[in-house]
């Protein structure tokens, strides 16, 4: 016995111990892989594509990163081949049956966000969008909700329209310059300037005024860097955790140059937050009366004995609102203009409706009037259908009671997900789904299938916070454009209308147009 003990001790403490570590790890990986593929796995009864045979996160990495954000398109194709409920990962089920959307995402649902998916994307920021606990989320959401309510948007209508008129002037000026030099107008850039000017004023109380100053290059590169980073973030979450504990100044020296602009944005938000905090500590009013509706002022005004706003909280809310408010809105506007540019009939119908609603010299464009125009509203909704701001899957964790889906049981703790793109391409709800057809939205009611299944802004308590602001921007920007200009693609155009899923929608190329002013 003593000899055996001596041999075991010698083996444990000997030089061969470390050589067994990779062997043990490899054995664990193989055993886990076999279990995931075996009939013993709780999700084994759900069909899965053969290309996901390895059943690991790296399968998703292949489709989402190597294929540049096209995972959602593969999911769409797999549903066509395998049915409405499929297994797309070791522990994840994807559903394309619209009747389950309200169950997983609608009001009062019990399905919480999957932390492994969301935390690497937004986890560094202390914002409403990054909170997983339901009570805390409800409280934080209740603080910022009034800022983005329909009534609040109406109070700032003059601000939105002022930027809309600046956008119209910019298109006119660039059109004249382009005609003289034979160049095209980069409409996607002007849409970006418009979206950034509006959301920056809403968040900070003072606009970037990119449409007036043309100092937009650094900001746009910052947001583009974020879009490039998001698809790979979730695959390296264990590396992110220790990095995010470091100060921003140290992080800047460690991360690639493409991500430094993201940290610059965080620092900028911090500088502005400090100004608001300094006002409070100095005894001055938190905000001037004309700036009562900013993210910073709203958060500070909500202070109670049980809720103390922090600098990190203010930075997080500002950065997420700015990024989301700029990126998704500008690309949606770009996709809308592209659709009109390649469909002259659609564009002419838009112009005729706008010319009738807003006769030259007698009627000003307003948000409320734009949102009542049937064809313009149909055009906006069709754009959101073919290019939703967040097109891909949004994983949720199955609650303790589990979920029965198509006579099959999904146990508690596993993930279920649905995708706006897959919902919007359902031919039973949207006939000829690949066709851009605004008329499908005319004469519909809120209870009609096409309306109920438009989930570009999601649903329930986790729906897009900026929904009302986005709809106001989309309607007014397109009204200012098509009331005054007839556009067509310029020979230098590089945009095709195709997009990829970078967690948020991202189009490739730049929309270059020629613009001709109407005389009416």
Automatic annotation (TrEMBL):
Heme binds at residue 464. It comes from Dactylellina haptotyla (strain CBS 200.50) (Nematode-trapping fungus). Its cofactor is heme. The keyword Iron applies. It comes from the Eukaryota. The chain crosses the membrane at residues 12-35. The lineage of its organism: Eukaryota, Fungi, Dikarya, Ascomycota, Pezizomycotina. One of its GO terms (molecular function) is heme binding. Belongs to the cytochrome P450 family. This is Cytochrome P450. Keywords: Heme, Iron, Membrane, Metal-binding, Monooxygenase, Oxidoreductase, Transmembrane, Transmembrane helix.
């Amino acid at each position: 016995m003593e000899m055996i003990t001596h041999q075991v001790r010698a083996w444990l403490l000997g030089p061969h111990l470390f050589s067994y570590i990779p062997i043990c790890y490899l054995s664990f990986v193989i055993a886990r892989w076999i279990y995931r593929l075996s009939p013993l796995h709780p999700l084994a009864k759900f069909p899965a594509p053969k290309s996901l045979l390895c059943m690991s996160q790296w399968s998703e990495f292949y489709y989402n990163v190597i294929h540049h954000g096209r995972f959602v398109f593969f999911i769409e194709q797999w549903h066509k081949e395998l049915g409405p409920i499929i297994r797309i990962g070791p522990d994840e089920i994807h559903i394309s049956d619209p009747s389950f959307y309200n169950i997983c995402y609608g009001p009062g649902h019990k399905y919480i966000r999957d932390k492994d998916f969301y935390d690497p994307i937004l986890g560094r920021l202390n914002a409403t969008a990054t909170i997983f606990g339901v009570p805390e989320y409800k409280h934080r959401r209740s603080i910022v909700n009034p800022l983005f309510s329909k009534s609040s948007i109406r109070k700032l209508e003059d601000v939105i329209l002022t930027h809309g008129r600046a956008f119209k002037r910019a298109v006119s000026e660039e059109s004249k310059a382009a005609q003289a030099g034979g160049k095209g107008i980069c409409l996607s850039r002007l849409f970006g300037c418009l979206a950034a000017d509006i959301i920056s004023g809403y968040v900070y109380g003072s606009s970037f005024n990119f449409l007036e100053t043309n100092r937009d290059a650094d900001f746009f590169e910052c947001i583009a860097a974020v879009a490039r980073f998001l698809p790979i973030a979730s695959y390296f979450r264990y590396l992110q955790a220790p990095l995010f504990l470091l100060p921003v100044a140290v992080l800047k020296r460690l991360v690639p140059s493409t991500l430094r602009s993201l940290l610059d944005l965080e620092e900028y938000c911090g500088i502005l937050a400090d100004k608001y905090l300094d006002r409070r500590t100095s005894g001055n009013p938190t905000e001037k009366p004309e700036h009562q509706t900013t993210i910073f002022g709203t958060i500070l005004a909500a202070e109670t004995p049980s809720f103390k706003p922090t600098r990190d909280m203010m930075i997080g809310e500002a950065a997420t609102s700015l990024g989301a408010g700029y990126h998704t809105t500008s690309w949606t506007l770009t996709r809308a203009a592209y659709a009109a540019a390649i469909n002259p009939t659609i564009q002419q119908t838009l112009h005729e409706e706008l010319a009738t609603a807003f006769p030259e010299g007698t009627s000003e464009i307003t948000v409320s009037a734009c949102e009542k125009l049937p064809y313009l509203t149909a055009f906006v909704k069709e754009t959101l259908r073919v290019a939703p701001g967040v097109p891909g899957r949004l994983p949720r964790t199955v609650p303790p009671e589990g979920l029965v889906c198509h006579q099959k049981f999904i146990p508690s703790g596993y993930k279920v997900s649905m995708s706006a793109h897959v919902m919007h391409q359902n031919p039973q709800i949207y006939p000829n789904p690949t066709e851009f057809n605004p008329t499908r939205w005319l004469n519909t009611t809120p209870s009609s299938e096409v309306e109920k299944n438009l989930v570009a802004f999601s649903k329930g308590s986790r729906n897009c916070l900026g929904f009302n602001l986005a709809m106001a921007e989309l309607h007014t920007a397109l009204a200012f454009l098509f009331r005054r200009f007839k556009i067509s693609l310029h020979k230098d155009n590089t945009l095709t209308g195709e997009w990829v899923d970078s967690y948020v929608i991202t189009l490739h190329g730049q929309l270059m147009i020629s613009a001709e002013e109407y005389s009416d």
